[in-house]
Amino acid sequence: MRPLLLGAALALALSASPAFAATIEVTIDKLVFSPASVQAKVGDTIEWTNKDILAHTATVKGGWDVTIPAKSKGKVTLKSAGAVDYFCRFHPNMKGHVEVTP
Description:
This protein is mainly beta. The chain has one domain (21-101): Sandwich (Immunoglobulin-like). The protein is 15% helix and 44% strand. The protein has a 4-stranded mixed β-sheet with strand order 2-1-4-7, with no helix packed on it. The protein has a 3-stranded mixed β-sheet with strand order 3-9-8, with no helix packed on it. The chain has a two-stranded antiparallel sheet with strand order 5-6.
């Protein structure tokens, strides 16, 4: 009977714990962020996978600046709520948008 009670207690504890942060995946291919617009929560991580043979950045003016080498990945953990537009410093026509909720 005790293992059953322990299992029930564990299940209850897990269901009451806060949600885990998510990783939002964005692909860079042919000088395009895809998806170009994402929704996230504070604490989530955005991870960019660069499939191009060129380096890129994900840059927010006055905010984060992530360098993503060719054929590699880069990431940032979101610290505050709000909407931000980002771009590649090397290729300013590359643009993305993140909507971050609390």
